[in-house]
Specification:
The chain is an alpha+beta fold and 216 residues long. The protein folds into two domains: 128 residues, no CATH class; 80 residues, C-type lysozyme inhibitor (Lipocalin). Helix content is 38%, strand content 24%. A hairpin with a 6-residue loop joins strand 1 and strand 2. Keywords: Lipoprotein, Membrane, Palmitate, Signal. It comes from Shewanella colwelliana (Alteromonas colwelliana).
Length: 216
């Protein structure tokens, strides 16, 4: 499975660089608590437990995945510190749901790659939502030439890059996608494609595309 191993190594390089930015932006958090320790090939949990799932055992046996687990643990710790005033408190419950989804990678034909991608998306989500990395914005886009039709966007220096967009009462986290031109971001049912201050934004399943201009 050379291709899967190469893919995981690429993810590790991207996420490790993003975590270093996260550490630098958190002056009140000791650096030695947040930087990934590449010499430690064990995950954040005990591998000798008899109750491990098959995916948890795979992580224990795969140094690259174990490192990803420790990196997520560091990011989750930073997010927890930021979320202590959340009402209602949702971070812990969401993390438990994410773990269940990660463990469902046993159904995948390429289990290791599935696990790595799950870690990558969760790290990006937490870093953006809790502002753990450098960001730019907010930027305001007026859509379909209507002053009341506005999308507010903040960009985050995650790996891969991401954004959080607000439109009316709804919010979407989008992650960058390969694009021949401009910058393209995809969320669950939303998409933003920006080029030279103009953006095509789709908001919602099968929703019409909006033509938007970035305001000065």
């Amino acid at each position: 499975m050379l291709d899967a191993a190469t893919s995981i190594r690429h993810l590790l390089l991207l996420i490790a660089s993003s975590l270093l930015l996260s550490c630098a932006s958190q002056a009140d958090v000791p650096r030695n608590n947040t930087q990934p320790n590449q010499a430690d090939a064990s995950p954040s949990y005990h591998c000798d437990s008899a109750s491990l799932s098959s995916i948890e055992s795979l992580i224990c046996q795969t140094p690259q995945l174990a490192m990803l687990d420790r990196q997520l643990a560091d990011v989750y710790s930073l997010a927890t510190a930021k979320a202590h005033n959340e009402h209602p408190p949702v971070l812990k419950a969401e993390q438990q749901g994410w773990i269940k989804g990660r463990n469902d990678c046993w159904k995948s034909d390429d289990k290791a790659n599935c696990v790595a991608l799950n870690y990558q998306s969760r790290i990006v989500e937490l870093q953006a939502r809790y502002r753990l990395v450098e960001s730019s914005g907010p930027f305001y886009y007026r859509c379909d030439n209507q002053a009341a039709n506005e999308v507010v966007v903040t960009y985050f220096n995650t790996a891969p890059t991401s954004l959080i967009a607000e439109y009316g009462d709804s919010v979407s986290l989008m992650v960058s996608q390969p694009s021949a031109s401009g910058a393209k971001y995809q969320g669950q049912n939303e998409q933003l494609w920006e080029h030279h201050g103009e953006a095509l934004i789709t908001w919602g399943y099968q929703a019409p595309q909006m033509k938007c201009i970035k305001l000065d």
